[in-house]
Amino acid sequence: MIALVDCNSFYASCEQVFRPDLQGKPVVVLSNNDGCVIAANKEAKALAHIPMFQPVFKIKNILKANNVTCFSSNYTLYADMSQRVMDTLREFSPIVEEYSIDESFVDLSHYNNDELDEIAHKIKERVHKNTGVPVGVGVAKTKSLSKMANKFAKKIPENNGVFVVDSEEKRQFLLSSAKVKDIWGVGRKHTIRIENTGAKTALDFANTNLAWVRKELTVVGERLWRELNNLPCLELVTETSVKKGIGTAKSFGKKLADYSIISEATSFYVAEVADLLRQQGSAAGCIEVFLQTNYFSNSDNQYSNKIIITLDTPTNSTIKLTKEALKGLKKIYKPGYRYKKVGVNLFNLVPENQVQTSLFYEEHKSESKELGKVIDALNSKFGKNKVKLATVGNREKDWALIKEHRSPRFTTQWSELLTIGGKTSSIKL
DNA sequence: TCTGGGGTCCTAGGACCC
DNA sequence: TCTGGGGTCCTAGGACCC
């Protein structure tokens, strides 16, 4: 049996752990640039009219009228809290799949079926005790069912955040109480196709003809259908897999026309992705740079372009990648536009120790490689970005994300530890 | 004035090879 | 007039997830 443990409105819960004064009050967390609502606690959800991904400026009045506390997203804090949750889950099982920052599949096959209900409640209580974060627990024979059990656990108050599918009756009950669109892995398009067959509930879908499912929804649909019928098709993935591509793309804090500032932002993002690349021990064979204006705007002239540069030899050197990226940026940049976003993607990744050197590659043990190592060492000792390339410049404030209401990084920075009677960084709009 | 970011998996179709 | 068939690799795009 498999448990799916999912943190309740995770980002908002993390903020509340350090702000006990906000217990029972509405809290939301905003996306980069404080653009959209990306998490809302149950008090905020209860207000309704706060749909996820709504731009903040459209619902500012509602937030204000209801005294909703808003936070900029603080990923450093959330990532650290997430690890604490995961560590607690490992006390219950050696096999844990970290599915996302706020949810995990936990293998419970070493427990007897009649213990599962008790174990599920224990998981919930211990995570809350250790981290302050509330979670829901769904238990079933397959990942897809445990995912749905988890949703159901949270939806019905009497479940108290836990639902265990340990009988055929409960499986049918669970599936018949979920609509087609609530099935994990069924999105907008698939919902339409499935509902066109007359199916209304997840149980209807599980009872439809498999050949139809295979034909219309491909193998992905077939696996899902089997999983809902208690036949496990999806294994728990415990090894963190090596990424196939690494990228970053962020909107600027304001629109930018000036090439030199955009190139500084680009350099900054290259350094960021190159760092991730080295951390996983890969080298990139290709680098893509793209640039775009604000496509929401009706008044601005629109332009977007991208360029993909194939490198002679795969590399993970920030210096080389920056050089290539800026060459590319120069080619696609056109003056006269107000740009909103720049992005960098690395792909064709290979293990760094298996790099095929090209015929003309002469710098096997180049100076830039040694230099890169020294820079990494300095940055890991003195803090991120303390040493950087001059191309990054020092005008970060001119392009960086807006995070007006970020809470302190309570758990990862000594200088930002929780203080009693300390200042707060959230705001009432 | 103000609209997120980072992923995975699968399929169809084109290019190319023998 | 008649013009094969099978295979691989790559890419773009669709669909979905958090």
Automatic annotation (TrEMBL):
<dbReference type="GO" id="GO:0003887">
    <property type="term" value="F:DNA-directed DNA polymerase activity"/>
</dbReference>
<protein>
    <submittedName>
        <fullName>Y-family DNA polymerase</fullName>
    </submittedName>
</protein>
<dbReference type="GO" id="GO:0005829">
    <property type="term" value="C:cytosol"/>
</dbReference>
<dbReference type="GO" id="GO:0003684">
    <property type="term" value="F:damaged DNA binding"/>
</dbReference>
<dbReference type="Pfam" id="PF11799">
    <property type="entry name" value="IMS_C"/>
</dbReference>
<keyword id="KW-0234">DNA repair</keyword>
<dbReference type="InterPro" id="IPR017961">
    <property type="entry name" value="DNA_pol_Y-fam_little_finger"/>
</dbReference>
<dbReference type="InterPro" id="IPR043502">
    <property type="entry name" value="DNA/RNA_pol_sf"/>
</dbReference>
<dbReference type="Pfam" id="PF13438">
    <property type="entry name" value="DUF4113"/>
</dbReference>
<dbReference type="GO" id="GO:0042276">
    <property type="term" value="P:error-prone translesion synthesis"/>
</dbReference>
<dbReference type="GO" id="GO:0006281">
    <property type="term" value="P:DNA repair"/>
</dbReference>
<dbReference type="InterPro" id="IPR036775">
    <property type="entry name" value="DNA_pol_Y-fam_lit_finger_sf"/>
</dbReference>
<dbReference type="GO" id="GO:0009432">
    <property type="term" value="P:SOS response"/>
</dbReference>
<keyword id="KW-0227">DNA damage</keyword>
<dbReference type="InterPro" id="IPR001126">
    <property type="entry name" value="UmuC"/>
</dbReference>
<dbReference type="InterPro" id="IPR043128">
    <property type="entry name" value="Rev_trsase/Diguanyl_cyclase"/>
</dbReference>
<keyword id="KW-0741">SOS mutagenesis</keyword>
<dbReference type="InterPro" id="IPR050116">
    <property type="entry name" value="DNA_polymerase-Y"/>
</dbReference>
<dbReference type="InterPro" id="IPR025188">
    <property type="entry name" value="DUF4113"/>
</dbReference>
<dbReference type="Pfam" id="PF00817">
    <property type="entry name" value="IMS"/>
</dbReference>
<comment type="similarity">
    <text>Belongs to the DNA polymerase type-Y family.</text>
</comment>
<keyword id="KW-0742">SOS response</keyword>
<feature type="domain" description="UmuC">
    <location>
        <begin position="2"/>
        <end position="187"/>
    </location>
</feature>
